[in-house]
Design goal:
The structure holds four protein chains of four kinds. Chain A is mainly α. Chain A contains 16 helices and no strands. Chain D is flat. The chains are: A mainly alpha, B mainly alpha, C alpha+beta, D mainly alpha. Chains in contact: A-B, A-C, A-D, B-C, B-D, C-D. At the A-C interface, α3, α5, α8, α9 and α10 of A face α1, α2, β7 and β9 of C.
Chain lengths: ~550, ~240, ~350, ~100
């Protein structure tokens, strides 16, 4: 395999190409926009995390001591809204996806750079409107906005929050649209569909959900806001509307939205598993198509949120069946990842630790989903802590771990500096332990009958709640450590070469950080995905950046 | 195997830096608009779903409410919009073949027809306003309060379900009108650049793409017209 | 509060709870098995195939269709057993037996109002006899609530604008949790109570001890008269300008549009609030809507009246049952043929 | 790929067909057809009109297969939304 040797060395990269606030706020470079997103998403994650801590502290005791009911209701609602709409959904696609999709396919940028920037502004506008709603008085409907509570009975800032989410939805749509068009039309010569990294397949599937689902939640929230403002109603039973219709429309988006959150994470895991075991992924096409299958099947299962919501028994059976069917593509992925490790050359770098943690936790998260798809058991478990534990296993154990793993993996590419490996491994371990201690007890709480969204609970549930809060504190510390050392490494970290991990992917065949147009020349791809070469060959690629670094 | 690199073509002034050539740029633009239209279909889809559900739940209330819409204005508007779609298609055609005069005339006609549609819609809305048919308290001083006799309300029919029809009617036609307004805005931008000779047979993707959008808005109306104005007409026979 | 001797499992006190537990243990077993299997293989591979020198490049592997098929088909089969098992119990859960005693439940922010067919009213507490099937007919005055009894492994949302039902048969005397499981606003976590399951004798004592009020059926009859339903449906529900109500409940009703519908609680509710929706064949569209004119309480009372033996004909009492006749829902055999 | 230029006469005939369709559907609305036929007629005409616009005005007839796939998938997902929602509403009375 030939390696890429840029003919004209250049130190100019996307970070130092231009200076000044204006050069960032008006940038059309997908890499800079990714960094804008990274900053704002971290901010929202921090706020959501504060709410989470408030929830866990209140639940230490069975009485209402830290928070009273009104406050508690707002805190869990806002935790959900911030985390779902402003962290989890944009997290991986808007940051790592934005940065890497063009680089991995050998393009200079996304197809619509201006729309990409616009999507960040829309995201920020939605965020500001939502923050305004939180500061003005908050919202207490639960992130699900069930009618008629949200339309008629709640006294909080439902319309303002809804507006924030509505606006934010367009950012998601535009990102998805941009990815789909980019992946279809901007691939470098030779980059055929089956040479694409699986990260790209996952983002393609994610984008499909974004463009097909998000408009439905947009119109639903719009109708809800009008109902609340003008007392008319498609969802209001008092005037002949049907509150269950709201739930159908809401979950038509919000169940697939779970796959918006986890599919890009699966894409990252495929990259990490292959790259850190230096093996081509086992069953490439099965992993690739299972992403698409999840995107399609994900739209067929929303009714499992309505098993006890007075949905018809027959619809319940259809949805239960389809929900079991969607488990298969996820299982295929897990088995293929495991098989990839077989006879690999496995290193224990931080990203790989996150990837291994992901597989374990995602297995638990996915399998507990089967409990909720099984009709009779779901009747008992729905709206209990079992559900809370299940989706945190997917979203924190899945998405967040993948996000952190990916961030560490591509950190040298993004910043041109290495993170401190020892701290990385240590914090990955802390996160893993803290996470399990937080959420494993909640499965048990759920089966014992502890309902969601209670801040006062019978005393027999306390022991498990205390365990969970203890775990949350560990998890919180585990998440703070990377925040500190990653910031530290931007300045003091070891300078990274163009290809510090010695990998074949296109994003590693350019300097770190990359130049504004990613590659000095449009690359021509002549190799398959995950075609590993001996490190000494790969180092040639990295040398270029090293040489430059030496000259500094 | 030797690495090869693709060189840029001699670039057209409209070619953006990150595309290899105009063909790729055009393909991306068209595909982008189609993907966007998919989101639009799903956006309207939510409302079509609500319409279908409540029409089947309250058929008589919907028929009574529907019969009170002005079928003449509705039909005229349908024709206006179809005509505007035709002129839009002609605008794309004349750009493709490089007939600049025809291109500008077609664009102007499309804008005028779009505005005519919106004007007629405004007249209809005003009639509904006078009949107190604007649902809920959307207009604060003029809540939903139609005269049951003028509506030919039958005893078993709840006025609330009539209101439901009007809410769906205003939500759907309102959203459609908003898309028309955006469309007219986009067409005005097109017209401005056409006058500046921006679009040529080689480069005219914006005209094409905005044309797609305009036709889509037309299609939405093609469905709204029978669903809102026509169904149930044969039951009452009372028009307007 | 009753607790279970099995750690981390709530008390099991209904005929259904054991069945749900069995499926739950099956699911837990499969989950634990696969989690251990995958983590085991993962750890084994990670140790065995650790990178021994920085220059090694393992040989690439092609996929295996055989393996892919295997690990698609086996999970699918396991998933289908779960589906079938879950669906089977669910079917039982969602079909109230016809001889169940009815209790009316109305949720409102933030309390449960409960009325027995015999008239006793309770708040946030429900006394039930052990060994007797109970059917809850539930409505709400405001938002969505959810009636959740963990010890019985059942819950159902209470949805404005319609009725939902739950049924159970308690197997063990005791006091069990009642939770509202659908978030309903400020005092959601205070919308709790208890289910008191009693031996039948104790329950009868409780019934006779607590002050009995007017039964819902009698109250319903009064509303039936004051609202003027009498003028079209007849004082005894024999019908007239409107269809007959006597003997109607539980029957198929033929509609003007050629379809037919079962006259259950939902149908009767809809016909009062939205009479045009399902017009009975042969009758004109003349009934005014009562939307906004009757409260949830009144609706349930009218419903109880229409379902009462007075309207539906006497019920042949099941011999051993100490239940007063008023408790027992009509069965098909006891009522006259539906009027078309 | 060079783009296909649709001749003017095609545009004109499609335009005329659409006007005829509109007239037809207004006429049909006042006829009392048996059963649900009124709905079926109105919807069929609307679908035909929409198809004409999509195929000719929007050039899908002459477009790449990808565009066909996109149009089809939009309809498919609308179908999912309708079919599964109504799987609930239509079967509620069955128990």
């Amino acid at each position: 395999m030939e390696t890429f040797v840029p003919p004209v060395p250049s130190r100019i990269n996307y970070i130092n190409a231009q200076y000044g606030l204006k050069s960032w706020l008006l940038t059309k470079d997908h890499k800079r926009i990714a960094l804008l997103y990274l900053g704002s998403i971290s901010f929202f994650f921090f706020i959501g995390g504060l709410y989470a801590m408030a929830i866990r502290l209140e639940l230490l005791t069975p009485q209402a001591d830290l928070l009273q009911s009104t406050t508690y209701n707002k805190v869990f609602t806002q935790h959900g809204i911030i985390m779902v709409f402003f962290f989890l959904i944009p997290s991986i696609p808007a940051t790592l996806g934005n940065f890497l999709v063009p680089m991995m396919i050998g393009a200079k940028d996304l197809a619509f750079p201006r729309i990409n920037l616009l999507s960040w502004y829309i995201y920020m506008l939605g965020g500001i409107v939502t923050i305004y709603a939180l500061l003005a008085g908050g919202v207490d409907t639960g992130w699900t906005f069930y009618t008629p509570f949200s339309t008629t009975f709640s006294n909080s800032y439902v319309v303002a929050t809804g507006l924030g989410i509505f606006i934010n939805g367009f950012s998601s749509i535009l990102t998805g649209l941009n990815f789909i068009v980019t992946i279809h039309t901007m691939r470098a010569p030779g980059m055929t569909w089956f040479r694409l990294p699986l990260f790209i397949w996952a983002h393609y599937a994610t984008s499909l959900i974004m463009i097909l689902g998000t408009p439905v939640i947009a119109i639903t929230i719009l109708l809800l806001a009008f109902e609340r403002l003008a007392h008319i109603g498609i969802f209001d039973p008092a005037v002949g509307g049907d509150p269950v219709l709201f739930q159908h429309l809401f979950w038509f988006y919000s169940h697939p939205a779970v796959y918006i959150m986890v599919l890009p994470g699966m894409g990252i895991i495929s990259e990490l598993i292959a790259n850190f075991s230096r093996k081509n992924i086992f069953g490439y096409s099965f992993v690739a198509f299972s992403s698409l299958a999840i995107a399609v099947f994900g739209f067929l299962v929303w009714g499992h949120h309505l098993f006890v919501a007075s949905q018809s028994v027959y619809a319940g059976m259809i949805f239960s069946f389809l929900s079991f069917a969607v488990a298969i593509p996820s299982a295929i992925k897990v088995f293929n990842w495991t098989a990839t490790l077989y006879k690999g050359s496995i290193s224990y770098d931080t990203p790989m630790l996150y990837a291994l943690g992901f597989i374990g936790l995602f297995t638990i998260g996915g399998m507990t989903g089967l409990f909720l798809a099984a009709l009779a058991v779901d009747v008992h478990l729905s709206d209990t802590y079992f559900v809370v534990a299940h989706f945190h296993y997917i979203m924190v154990g899945g998405t967040l771990l993948a996000y952190l793993g990916g961030l560490h993996f591509w950190w040298p590419k993004i910043t041109g500096r290495m993170y401190p490996e020892g701290w990385g491994r240590f914090s990955a371990l802390v996160v893993f332990i803290g996470f399990n201690l937080t959420f494993l007890p909640q499965f048990v709480l759920g089966y014992m009958g502890m309902p969601r969204r209670y801040h006062v609970y019978p005393a027999e549930f306390q022991v498990l709640h205390v365990l969970s809060t203890a775990g949350a504190s560990i998890l919180g510390v585990g998440l703070l450590i990377p925040l500190i050392y990653l910031m530290w490494s931007m300045r003091y970290g070891k300078v990274a070469s163009g290809n510090p991990w010695h990998l074949p992917g296109l994003e590693w065949r350019t300097q770190s950080p990359p130049p504004t147009e990613n590659f000095d020349y449009t690359p021509v791809v002549t190799w398959e995905a995950y075609e590993f070469a001996p490190p000494e060959e790969m180092e040639v690629v990295g040398k270029f950046r090293d040489e430059v670094a030496e000259k500094v | 195997m030797a690495e090869t690199y693709v060189e840029h073509e001699v670039s057209h002034p409209a070619l953006q830096h990150h595309f290899e050539n105009l063909e790729q740029q055009r393909e991306a633009g068209t595909l982008g608009m189609w993907v966007f239209l998919v989101t639009e279909i799903m956006f309207f889809g939510g409302m079509f779903l609500a319409y279908t559900l409540y029409r089947s739940k309250y058929p008589e209330a919907f028929a009574i409410a529907s019969n009170h819409l002005d079928i003449k204005l509705g039909a005229i508007n349908t024709a206006v919009l179809i005509f505007s779609s035709f002129t839009m298609a002609m605008a794309v055609y004349s750009t493709q073949v490089g007939k600049r005069r025809a291109q500008i005339i077609s664009l102007v006609l499309t804008i005028v027809l779009g505005l005519a549609f919106l004007g007629i819609k405004a007249v209809e809305y005003y009639q509904k306003y006078e009949d107190h048919l604007i649902p809920g308290s959307l207009i604060p001083g003029n809540p939903f309060n139609p005269d049951p006799h003028a509506m030919h309300l039958t005893p078993g029919v709840s006025m609330q379900h009539v209101q439901m029809f009007y809410w769906i009617y205003f939500a759907m036609t309102g959203m459609h009108a908003l898309h028309m307004i955006i469309g007219v805005g986009l067409l005005s931008v097109l017209l401005y650049f056409s006058l500046k000779r921006r679009y040529t047979p080689e480069y005219h993707n914006p005209v094409e793409v905005i044309g797609l959008y305009w036709h889509f808005v037309d299609i939405v109306w093609i469905f709204l017209f029978p669903l809102l104005y026509l169904l149930g007409r044969h039951l009452g026979g009372h028009a307007g | 509060m009753q607790t279970s001797w099995v750690p981390f499992v709530p008390p099991s006190a209904s005929t259904l709870s054991g069945k749900v537990d069995a499926l739950y243990f099956y699911l837990s077993g499969v989950t634990i098995f696969f989690t251990l299997l995958i983590s085991g293989i993962l750890i084994f591979f990670v140790i065995k195939y650790r990178r021994r020198n920085p220059y090694e490049i393992p040989r690439p592997v092609a996929g295996s269709l055989k393996l892919e098929t295997l690990w698609s088909v086996i999970p699918f089969i396991i998933a289908m057993t779960m589906f079938a098992w879950g669906a089977q119990i669910f079917f039982e859960q969602s079909r109230p037996p016809s001889n169940a005693v009815e209790v009316y439940v109305i949720g409102k922010q933030w309390m449960w109002k409960i009325q027995h067919s015999t008239g006793q009213r309770e708040i946030n507490e429900l006394h039930v006899p052990v060994g007797r099937k109970i059917k809850l007919v539930m409505g709400t005055e405001d938002v969505i609530h959810d009636f959740f009894i963990p010890a019985f492994r059942i819950k159902a949302d209470v949805v404005p604008g319609r009725y939902t039902t739950l049924w159970f048969e308690a197997t063990k005397a005791g006091r069990y949790h009642l939770f509202c499981a659908e978030y309903c606003g400020m005092n959601h976590s205070g919308m709790i109570g208890s289910i008191v399951a009693m031996e039948p004798k104790d329950f009868d004592d409780w019934l006779s001890g607590s002050s009995s009020q007017q039964s819902p059926a009698v109250a319903g009859q009064q509303i039936y008269e004051t609202l003027g339903c009498v003028s079209c449906h007849g004082p005894k529900g024999e019908g007239g300008r409107g269809p007959a109500l006597a003997g109607l409940f539980g029957k198929q009703v033929f509609l003007t549009n050629g379809q037919s519908v079962k006259a259950d609680e939902g149908y009767i509710r809809e016909s009062i609030l939205n009479p045009q929706a399902k017009l009975v064949a042969g009758f004109g569209n003349i009934m005014p809507t009562f939307q906004g004119q009757v409260s949830e309480d009144q609706l349930i009372q009218i419903l109880a009246f229409i379902k009462s033996p007075q309207m539906q004909g006497p019920e042949p009492s099941t011999a051993a049952s100490p239940v007063p006749a008023a408790f027992v829902a009509p069965t098909a055999a006891a009522t006259p043929a539906p009027r078309r | 790929m060079s783009e296909h230029i649709v001749p003017v006469r095609v545009y004109v005939s499609i335009f005329l067909a659409l006007i005829v369709g509109t007239t037809l559907t207004v006429w049909a609305a006042f006829q009392d057809f048996p059963g649900p036929l009124n709905v079926i007629v109105a919807m069929t005409i609307a679908v035909v009109k929409a198809t004409l616009v999509v195929l000719y005005f929007m050039h899908v007839r002459y477009s790449a297969r990808l565009i066909w796939v996109i149009v089809a998938s939009a309809l498919f997902w609308m179908g999912i939304l309708f079919a599964l929602t109504f799987s609930d509403y239509l079967t509620r009375g069955w128990m």
